[in-house]
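input
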Amino acid sequence: MRSSKAIVLIEVICASALALVTIVAIESTLRSKPVLQWLDLHRPPYIPRSGLVDIRVHVEKQMLHLEALAREPERRVSFVGSSSVVNGIDEYDVKVALKAAPKLQPRNLGLTGMLSSELSPLRSLLVSDGTVAVVYLYNGFSFSDVRNPDAIDARGSAIDDLNHEPIAWWQIRRAARFGERLLSERLWIRRYRNLIISYVERILASDIEPLRSPFDYSVDRPPPPMSERTRVPRPPVSSENWVRRAYIESSERDTTLGYSALSSFCDDLKRNNVRLIISAAPEALFGRTNPYAVGIDFDAIDARIEKISKQCGAYYIGRDKVFEDDDANFVDEVHLSAKGREKYSKAIGAKVDEVLGR
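output
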């Protein structure tokens, strides 16, 4: 009997050891530079609201892109923010505008639905060793206590969340979720599980090719119809919607997790001699009346950010309201058209160049 139990124990130990070795081998392979570069080159395209790519896959592929760029040995200026940055910054057009610092490489590090509370947890990816400056382009929803539910697994920090909101001894489900998130953050095969499945499916279907465009929207997509560009306020969605709630908290509250996070990030960059430039990402004026942003005081948000910038030594660039009033610059409320992207990239590039040349 004892012999049988010993054999079972040995089999369990051997199976566990084999599983551990397999996981380590897969992790090492995925994290190797050649494999990471291939995965980054072949990341799946995303067409908003098409249903063709799961939003979780989209979030994970953006994080993988940041992982790949973080390993590049280059002096850079990083453009950080939400999908307004993903679709609003053309690295080539910014590069042309950087005349005072021509050797700097502009990098678009936008992440869909990114909030300022994510700046510090993602610091190692946003601020590589060669980063000279970070340009943070915020939205009207960036500074709340809200979390983006679609991005918690791929971009969140379980430790930071625990420090912000400790787990009570009786909250068993939260404790289990905390353990699950810790595992997800440590293991790539867990953190990027939806993206990895996407690669496997595309390979099996012989439907894998290099990503043709880093932008979510077709270059020939026109502005929305006039019926969607009304300046007439529409009824707001429920504040239970995380985007609506994020807009409200950013607008109405002077102190939030988001505002505090920006201040801390700014102080951290200052200690490490990395310049921080802050400006509002363009949001169409016709979008101020949509159900998510209606009634939001963008001037109040801008005033708070300008004050934070002065306090921590960041450079603040004011909102371009003339640009935001031109409907042709947008394909929807917060995303630029190809024409708008070219104009904005050159304009913000010139302003950043002026700051870096001081």
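quick obs: The CA atoms of residues 329 and 343 lie 8 Å apart.
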